[in-house]
Specification:
This protein has helices spanning 31-44, 50-66, 69-80, 85-88, 108-119, 121-139, 166-175, 205-213, 225-240, and strands spanning 8-11, 24-27. The chain is mainly alpha-helical.
């Protein structure tokens, strides 16, 4: 059997398939590597203090109300006006760096959230596959819309069609009460922090094209009226504008 890699790194922030508020983990079947990583963790990662623990609790308490329908409209407007960049923008295009607390361990509340999420993994994947299958059927044949490939075993962290009118459809959807996201809105090779570096020797036109054309449809939760509305709005835009 061909070996793909010695280890896998997983981000566990709130936008992932399962999460622990912030943080991440490493998985490996190489026992020597596992022991080395554990030793480095014990030597370099320090225990979190009470301040970080309370910050995580407050963050978790704020997240759930923020995504409720009555409040989310306001949150979305603040986000689009860039007033929430400090909280939602996790990178600076001009810097290659690590989070300020990357050598601070997870808090107990993060660990508890993560363990609960792991216990729900199979159900989370089942729901996302159901929503993705619905989009496959509902949006099939939509002019100007390229659906993601159907990959056996996919867990559907995202559902990402491509369209040449990305900005137009995002604005159209907002006017009809639907927020469409972006999977990756940048190409690393074009970012100031990477441009001109020795390892960045080749153009990356495919990455740039994907960053300019990919939209992200919501797949969280049980299949419901909100997913059907998303499909109607996306299809309506492309049918209305197919002759342009």
């Amino acid at each position: 059997m061909q070996r793909e890699g010695a280890a896998a790194l997983y981000g566990l922030n709130i936008s992932k398939l399962i999460g622990s508020i912030f943080g991440g983990m490493v998985g490996t079947d190489d026992d020597a590597l596992r022991q080395r990583l554990a030793r480095l963790r014990d030597e370099r990662v320090r225990a979190p203090g009470w301040r970080k623990a309370w910050q995580r609790r407050l963050y978790l308490a704020a997240v759930y109300p923020a995504f409720q329908p009555l409040i989310y409209g306001l949150v979305n407007r603040l986000e689009r006006s860039h007033l929430l960049d400090r909280f939602v923008k996790y990178y600076d295009e001009c810097k290659i760096d690590m989070p300020a607390d990357y050598l601070v361990g997870m808090t107990r509340v993060e660990a508890r959230v993560g363990r609960v999420q792991v216990s729900r993994y199979a159900e989370v994947v089942r729901r996302r596959r159901e929503v993705a299958a619905f989009y496959d059927e509902a949006l099939s044949g939509t002019p100007g819309l390229c659906l993601p490939p159907r990959a056996p075993g996919a867990t559907h962290l995202h559902y990402v069609p491509r369209t040449e009118r990305k900005r137009e459809i995002v604005e159209y959807a907002l006017r009809h009460g639907v927020q469409l996201g972006e999977l990756i809105e940048y190409s690393c090779a074009d970012m100031p922090a990477y441009r001109g570096r020795p390892g960045n020797r080749y153009p990356c036109p495919i990455a740039r094209k994907l960053s300019e054309t990919t939209i992200n449809l919501p797949v969280w939760g049980e299949l419901s009226a909100k997913h059907r509305k998303v499909a109607r709005v996306v299809k309506s835009y492309h049918k209305t504008n197919q002759r342009r």
